[in-house]
Design a protein that fits this description.
about 300 residues; four-stranded antiparallel β-sheet; 29 strands; about 0% helix
Length: about 300
């Protein structure tokens, strides 16, 4: 894997996604999405080896940005603004870097890890350290590697969604303050699980894909809480996305070449992403190599 360097795309809501018709953002795939104060922020790929990303908005021409080999961006919106994190391959593993979105040329090295980072809105990174344990910020959340193989899949509101595997067991666990002791998913086999996390109020919401099916698991933020799981689709592809407002949960996934939000088809394409600022919810995806955006709610 080569160096990853990322760029933010600012999208003002009134000009982008008030209408029901999706808007094309650019001729590259959508790679990441965040929202804050009624504005959506995204990363799109340019397809140019020398400058693999584009920085653009719907009110200005896009411009190439980045460096060769850039991949897998992380964007998070928090009280301090938009922050970006990425990884760079080094001999000891992955070097993790982070920066505010308005200082892309001044990224700070955070640490060395064994997996790409997950960026929380508070600006802290969740990752697997050199030993394979999960760390978030200054806190080590697991102590059982390498017997357990940990892969942080998402981070939100101080909590980390961890894929925990050992021998013939696969589990999805929430790590951090008030996280349920029970896993959101536990299987007596190794399995490929892709998942996303949303936290709202005093509850956790996990959308995950397993064996081409899409599920939603929810639990209160309490150590003794039990997860409630329901199947959303019998035919889903790739990682589902999830967002939560004060009144509603949104889950987006791809199926048979289409993008679905809460069971409603909104367009053609794949790799959906959701972002919410607490009121507005945006859905982004990739269609025929181009990045698309619409307002989900």
């Amino acid at each position: 894997m080569r160096v990853a360097l990322f760029v933010v795309l600012g999208l003002a809501v009134p000009g982008v996604a008030r209408a029901a018709t999706p808007v094309e953002l650019g001729d590259g795939p959508l790679l990441a999405l965040a929202a804050r104060d009624g504005t959506a922020y995204a990363v799109i790929g340019s397809g140019e080896p020398a400058s693999p990303f584009r920085f653009a908005s719907t009110t200005a021409a896009s411009a190439p940005f980045g460096s060769p080999g850039a991949e897998s961006p992380e964007i998070a919106a928090g009280p301090e603004g938009i922050r970006i994190a990425w990884a760079r391959q080094i001999s000891a593993g992955l070097e993790l870097l982070e920066t505010p979105s308005d200082e892309l040329s001044g990224a700070t090295r955070v640490t060395t890890a064994t997996a790409p980072p997950q960026l929380d809105g508070d600006g802290t990174l969740a990752y697997s350290d050199r030993d394979g344990n999960v760390v978030k910020g200054d806190d080590q959340l697991t102590h059982d590697a390498p017997e357990h193989r940990h892969l942080p899949l998402d981070a939100a509101e101080g909590l980390v969604l961890d894929l925990d595997q050992r021998r013939a067991i696969t589990q999805l666990r929430l790590l951090g303050p008030s996280a349920p002791n029970l896993p959101a998913l536990s299987l007596p086999r190794l399995a490929d699980v892709q998942a996303s996390l949303a936290i709202a109020g005093n509850a956790a919401y996990v959308a995950y894909a397993l064996d081409e099916r899409i599920y939603l698991a929810t639990a209160e933020l309490d150590a003794q809480a039990r997860w409630r799981t329901r199947k959303l689709s019998n035919d889903g592809a790739g990682r589902p996305a999830i967002a939560r407002t004060a009144r509603k949960t949104y889950v987006a996934f791809s199926r048979a070449g289409g993008i679905y939000v809460n069971g409603k088809r909104i367009g053609n394409g794949g790799r959906p992403q959701l972002a919410s600022d607490g009121t507005e919810v945006f859905v982004g995806w990739t269609r025929e190599g181009g990045a698309m955006l619409a307002r989900a709610g």
